[in-house]
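Readers of this paper often ask what the protein records in our data store actually look like. This encoding replaces a full spatial description with a residue-level series of whole-number codes. For reference, a complete record is included directly beneath this paragraph.
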Amino acid sequence: MIVKEIESLLKEALDSLKYECENLEVIVSNRKDLCDYQFDGLFKLAKNLHKSPLEIGKLIVDALLKQEKTKQILKKVELLPPGFINFTLNDNYINHNLELMIINEKFNITLPEKKKIVIDYGGPNIAKPLHVGHLRSAIVGESIKRILKYLGHDVTSDVHLGDYGLQIGQVIYGLKEEMITPDKITLEKLEEIYPKISGLCKENEDIKKICASITKELQDGNKEYNDYFKNIREISQRDIKRIYDYLGVSFDVWNGESDAYPFIEKLTPILIEKKLLKKSEGAKIIEVKEDTDTKEIPPLLYEKSDGAYLYGTTDLGTIYERIEKYNPDEIIYVVDKRQELHFETVFRVCKKIGYTNNTSFEFLGFGTVNGSDGKPFKTRAGNSPKLDFLFKEVKEVFLKSNEKNESMNEKDLDIIVNAILKFADLQNNREKDYIFDIAKFSEVIGKTGPYLLYTYLRIESILKKETINKESFNEQIYNKEDRDLRMKILELDNTINFAAKNKLPSTIANFLYEMCVNMNAFYEKNHINNLMDLEKKENWLLLLKLSNNVLKSMLDLLSIEIPERM
């Protein structure tokens, strides 16, 4: 990693001056006209040493310039007021690192220590159609999984279906009311019954109690209800998989809340032994509030007074299973940020049990997908649109955006629909809400999925006409656009490791957009096809080939495919 090499030079210079600097950090410059990288730690050093930043900076720069390796890496080291050290790479070093990216696996990126990781995302309820509210968990979770796998981690993904809550009792009640036997259940009937009975339960407390009773009896092993449940889950899961397949989202494990019940039975004695379970108004709870809390943290309701379990209990049972089966270093949850308090409670129980001694738990909350009014995205009827409806709507908007689009085949159209949806989401920090503007995100210009795909296909059309027989660059970098593209590619290592560490696919999405801007600027400036200077032409073709290889690989980490044409 280039940043680490510059930091190593800087540390050697500081050591020679006997200066101590904690958290030594060199950053990528946001002023490309001034330098490539920058160190802004002089202010802290000056404060500790009771000297001016410029005085200390001059000594450090002098020490850097005395090092032989500095000349091999840097063309310029410059001290600027009020206290910044700027670094500019030399051309040979830039090209050497690009060559390492060409000849080494995974572009020679720095790979971290391998970990076992379980990632929980998706989380749809059975018997309900997937709607736009399910989109972010699937898209963000899938990308995080792919990034972690790319860096060599042993990752297990689990969809964790919601299949044992009140909604299953409501659906069984509705089916029985219409005298539909388990073998006659259809997907269409499930989609009709759930909203109908859910609405009734809001109006009629007696019906709600009956549905809750059905859920409890199912959990206790009622055979008739279990027959209903198995068929409901099978039919619903088949449709959920169909939607996820369309989105290119996959899971290693298709477990649900119901699968946690055998492990709840194993967990309960442990909680009793550790004296964590307390009785409260007939229910069993686990207190998690700490003396240092500045806000109210409620206890976890482990078992209701009627003996039924809620989400917190099934989450704990699932954690028991995951630790027993996978012994993971990390368990990650990609869930709506409004669930943060729930998972804070669950994680505190895990700490009391002792699970956090060997396993870390991380809640990755995400914001909502909003319409142009800034409120959660809705159809004209005021409902959250089913994903099937959203896919269709995005496709129609894209087709209407350019009459040439109508000649595209269905496979390519579906790939572009995915790119529109995914890049619209992933370019945003997952914690933030964002406004989904179908027309805007369907454009081939601007910060959109189609723009990235168009850039790849544009460059690929050039490469297909040429033969590239080399894997090394000459010493020269020819112009600003040439250098800008090379420097952007060199940011890949830092980008992907930052994205993995912080679980932020947006880092990669924004890097790719900026790289595509550089690629197109390079293409517009440098007319390769008719170039008579063969050495320059070969260097530029090699650069474009590397650019497109990076673009394709990183798009895959965002689970974005590339169409044949557009």
